[in-house]
Amino acid sequence: MFKQSNLAETIPVFPLPGALLLPRARLPLHIFEPRYLAMIEDCMKTPHRLIGMIQPREVPEGCDMRLHAIGCAGRLTAFSETEDGRYMVTLSGVSRFRKVQEVDGFTPYIKCAVSWDGFERDLGASERDTGFDRDRFLALLGRYFDAEDLKTDWESLSDADDELLINSLSMLCPFDAEDKQALLEAPTLANRRETLVTLLEFSLHGGGNDERLQ
């Protein structure tokens, strides 16, 4: 649907800690703050309907918020409004971007000039991970879910293709914001899988190097 040449040069961004969006994945959001309600309303007036999800950096208390350099833009593809005026929306991941600078303006939310260079892969077909050992990965994931007391539909996970499985888990697992950023910045699906495995093992073994799975 999108080519790099017709992606917007300036987009609104939503700095939500721990909320990760990846290309070709979907992120549901519950919007209730007035400034982000305004962002959704303005977004729906644009032809591209793009919103950038980006992680705030950790800063000392009392300091101004800073944003990571790389985020991921999604197209607003689902919208509903609750009786009390909140919005339930879904963003469909389009491409990662690099923040160039924040743009001054009169909107209550942040807008950024962005560059899409270097992320051409995001606009292509789904990625494959030829080195993916699914059985060993699912065994590790099962131990992690047991340790974290998490539930999932294992049949659906087993049937999902490589990209959907790895990206969905990257988005859904309760990692901290810096870990989510590392998953976002992984250049390929195989790199993201390796990062995900490292995070799962770290949670299980406190960063030990036993049972390494690459």
Compact description:
Pfam families: LON_substr_bdg (PF02190). The protein is α+β, with helices and mostly antiparallel strands and 214 residues long.
Question: Can you characterise this structure?
Answer:
Its EC number is 3.4.21.53. It holds the Pfam family LON_substr_bdg. One of its GO terms (biological process) is proteolysis. GO terms for molecular function: serine-type endopeptidase activity. Residues 11-204 form the Lon N-terminal domain. The longest helix has 17 residues, at 189-205. Helices cover 32% and strands 24% of the residues. α5 runs antiparallel to α6. The protein has helices spanning 34-43, 134-148, 154-159, 162-172, 177-185, 189-205, and strands at 10-15, 26-31, 50-54, 70-81, 87-102, 110-115. It is of the alpha+beta class and 214 residues long. It contains 6 helices and 6 strands; from the N terminus they run ββαββββααααα. A 5-stranded mixed barrel has the order 1-3-4-5-6. The two termini are 34 Å apart. It has 2 domains: 4-123, Archaeosine Trna-guanine Transglycosylase, Chain: A, domain 4, CATH 2.30.130.40; 134-205. It is globular, with a radius of gyration of 18 Å. β4 and β5 (87-102) form a beta hairpin.
Strand order of the largest sheet: 1-3-4-5-6
Portion in strands: 15-25%
Which class do the helix and strand fractions yield? alpha+beta
**Using only CA atoms, what is the Rg?**
18 Å
Tally of separate helices: 6
Level-2 CATH architecture of the largest domain = Roll
Fraction in helix: 25-40%
Largest sheet: 5 strands, mixed, barrel
CATH superfamily of the largest domain: LON domain-like
Task: Give the ordered list of helices and strands.
Answer: EEHEEEEHHHHH
CATH topology of the largest domain: Archaeosine Trna-guanine Transglycosylase, Chain: A, domain 4
Counting DSSP E segments of at least 2 residues, the number of strands comes to 6
